[in-house]
Amino acid sequence: MSKRVTIDPVTRIEGHLRVDVEVDGGKVKKAWSSGQMWRGVENILIGRDPRDAWAITQRICGVCTTVHAIASVRAVENALKLEIPVNAQYIRNLIMLAHAIHDHIVHFYHLSALDWVDVVSATKADPAKAASLAQSLSSWSGNSVQEFKKVQDKIKGFVASGQLGIFTNGYWGHPAMKLPPEVNLLAVVHYLQALEVQRYANKIVTVLGSKSPHIQNVAVGGVANPLALDSQSVLTVERLLAVKEWIDKLDDFVKNVYLVDVAAIGAFYADWTTHGRGIVDYLSVPDVPLDGKGTQFAMPGGHIANGDVSTFKAIKTFDDKYFADGVSEAVKHSWYDYSSGNDKSLHPYKGETTPKYTDFQDDGKYSWLKSPSFYGKPMQVGPLANVLTMFAAGHEPTKKYATAALDLVSNIAKTKVGIDALHSTIGRHAARAVRCAVVQDELVKQWDLLLANMGKGDLKTFNKPVFPKGEQMGVGFHEAPRGVLSHWVVIQDGKIKNYQCVVPSTWNAAPRNEKDAPGAYEACLVGNPIADPEKPLEVLRTVHSFDPCIACAIHVIDEEHTEIVKVKAA
Amino acid sequence: MKVVVLGVGNTLLTDEAIGVRAVEALQQRYRLPPEVNVIDGGTAGMELLESLEDLDQLVIVDCVRVGQPPATVIRRIDDEVPAFFRTKISPHQIGISDVLAALTLRERFPQRLALIGIQPKDLDTGIELTPEVAATIPEVLALVVEELARVGVKVVEKA
User: Which residues does the annotation say bind Ni(2+) (chain B) (predicted)?
Assistant: First the structure.
């Protein structure tokens, strides 16, 4: 007998996502992913000055502020064929990379680790054994017995007083929780340390972006940071030296804690390398431009078909036609109406955002998210797509950290684990950690490049945009922490005529497309085990592994409801 | 003395923006002493952690749904506030409630805490407040000023 399980909303994510699964014989047979909020932000932009779009779009979402700002200015610059000073690229790159590190650390420790880590079990660990395990895995200074004991006492206090606070929604004691108490304690210690460390990434964004959480320094044509070697009130060498200190602190944590923890936890959940495969067509874009035009990039990107890295096709420049021509969005199963009919997808330049709400219809319309395709096929985007495409492109740092992580997993699990294991729920976490280490190295390099260029006397950060009469179209893409983000703008006589954002979570959380092909969450959930339909932890594991962010972020606090999440098993 | 007045909300969803617009108005209309830091938090979460550590007082201004008529202004103090944020079913899960919980875990929770909440009228896509909710700003600011006075911070209206 099959059972329908509805999780509404999925918790510990940004935005409102509903997931339905049909469970039969302890396994998911069919899944639906439904965005429950309408995001009509594109309509706000029509008729506005293209130079203001970035400041408006960065308000779409609380988690992804900087990424929308970057994609937006790139789209307008692309439409104007406007080259920007190389210093502006370096400063934007530093902000993007620091933001990505922040996002990856917070996602792993604070938004998804508790799907795998049992906090209550950590109170039963032997702190000395846990510390000695941690020390055998890495040289991190926060792995002392005293530290482990201190954290355990603190957690015991919270558990005893019923004040679990941030941990309240956990599925403690669930049969799918498999870590020994010592590994749980290790993860909880690092969870708390991650709260400290994430602040350094945020400080970098704040200093370079002039403000946080919403950066203020981005402009169409470059950045608004005046550079100087000595003057006050601008970005000086002295302030950049402070940035370097924070970069170094992040480096230690990312490589000696985050990467190691993911490998250790992954090794205990080896069965999860066989769940959550789903869509293995991957899309990623190149990022960290090294020249003003966006023709050379430090991190490559492209397309991989059928999970086969030998099919890799590169996306090469900001003007890449292969990317720009390949993207389209369908609304056959989404609560929108296209004026040309709903059985064909539309290119984002022609995109329409006209709502048409029906009820939740399993075979009809059931989501506020559109369904994007790349040359007609749904894609998986995100760190896994990014790591696989960089690996396929022969990117040395990616090969180095991917190999190191897989070797560590193999050592702990005492069985050879290869790159194929990455096409999975736990593999997405591993890929994110590998990407974070790659991003960390790139952050150091971009800092060096900026300082070296300033040292040559080049302090230019802005090229003034000029808006000609007539119509221009442009796309700005960015490999954001959750994957490919693209903004598409049509400008008419200096005003925005059309604007569409195709965001990473739209790719991954999409409903079925115009050919009824499921989106990435839907495909990846099929086959997942479900031990207890009343507590569908396994569904959360797979959905959370994508780092969902249903970018619409309504923020009303509601005193009338006390229920945190509704799980309906029928 | 370290005090933060934090306005939160999504500025693209009409009255959701009230927290942000109110703290902007606070800065425009009042002369604030240096120990008061006004933050436009937007819909951010963990990014705010550092600015909110070890405060003598935190005043949060936010849009709330409390079953009252639109443009009703409410105040919650100290222990009522975290409980308020914990029981919400907001789609914005990783916002203020997690930051407050993280402050507790790190033992850096504010000494005093106040929430000034405003019931919205409209949450559709749009970047202007409804006139009814916009009209609550003087009342909201008066409450913020009262809360600041509670910890001995005096602010003066600009001439």
Answer: 16, 62, 92
Mutate to test the interface with A, among B43, B79, B85 (most CBs of A within 10 A): B43
Q: Any idea which residue has 């009509």 for tokens? A: A40
- Read off the tokens for A111: 């938004």
Mean of the per-residue pLDDT values of chain B: 89
Q: Note the helical H segments in A328-395.
A: 383-392
pLDDT at A109: 94
Cβ contact (<8 Å) for B91 and A11?
no
Among the partner residues B45, B84, B91, nearest to A554 by beta-carbon distance? B91
Element (DSSP H or E) covering residue A439:
helix A425-455
Cis peptide before B131 (omega within 30 of 0): no
Please tell me the predicted confidence (pLDDT) of residue B91. 38
User: Does B16 belong to an annotated binding site?
Assistant: yes
Annotation-wise, does B24 bind a ligand?
Answer: no
Question: Can you say which residues of A are annotated as belonging to the binding site for Fe cation?
Answer: 64, 549
> Does the distance separating the beta carbons of A561 and B89 come in below 8 Å?
yes
Rounded average pLDDT per 10-residue block, chain A, 570 residues: 82 75 95 79 90 89 79 98 98 97 93 90 96 96 97 89 64 88 97 94 91 85 86 77 96 97 95 96 98 97 97 98 97 94 94 89 93 97 98 98 96 92 97 98 97 94 97 98 96 96 90 96 96 90 86 40 47
> Does position B58 have pLDDT exceeding 80, yes or no?
yes
Contact (CB<8Å) A13/B123? no
CB contacts under 8 A, B 16-45 vs A, are: 16, 40-45
Handedness of CA A405, A411, A413, A414 (dihedral sign): positive
Measured between its terminal Cα atoms, the distance across chain A in Å is 11
Q: How far is Cα B130 from Cα A304, in angstroms, rounded to an integer? A: 48
Beta bridge partners of A383: none
A411: tokens are 């050592």
CA of A563: how far to CAs of A514, A560, B80, B152, in Å? 36, 9, 17, 38
Beta pairing, strands B3-8 & B57-65 = parallel
> Which residues of A are the active-site residues?
14, 61, 64, 68, 482, 505, 549, 552
Single out the residue of A158, A154, A127 nearest to residue A143, CA to CA: A127
Q: Which of A78, A165, A87, A67 is nearest to A119 (CA)?
A: A165
The predicted pLDDT at position B135 comes to: 98
Instruction: Give the one of B12, B90, B92 whose C-beta lies nearest to A44's C-beta.
Output: B12
Q: Return the SS3 of A181.
A: helix
Task: State the Cα–Cα distance between residues A473 and A76, nearest whole angstrom.
Answer: 8
Which is it for strands A495-502 and A483-492: parallel, antiparallel or unpaired? antiparallel
Element (H, E) at A131: helix A127-137
Question: ipTM score here?
Answer: 0.82
Say how many C-beta atoms besides its own lie within 10 A of residue B79's C-beta.
Answer: 9
Cα(B47)–Cα(A159) distance, integer angstroms: 26
Average pLDDT over residues B69-73: 96
CA distance B26 to chain A (A): 18
Chosen for mutation from B80, B125, B127, B133 (greatest number of chain A CBs closer than 10 Å) is B125
B67 vs A contacts (CB less than 8 Å): 559-560
Structure tokens at A524: 């990846």
Find, among A172, A183, A211, A388, the residue nearest to A283 by Cα: A388
CA gap A106, A195 in Å, rounded: 8
- Any residues with CB less than 8 A from the CB of A307 and at least 6 apart, and which? A277, A280, A281, A282, A423
Q: In terms of Cα–Cα distance, which of B74, B86, B99 is closest to B4?
A: B99
Q: Residues 128..157 of B with a Cβ closer than 8 Å to A: which? A: none
List beta partners, residue A302: A284, A314
The CB-side HSE value for A206 (13 A sphere, CA atoms) comes to: 18
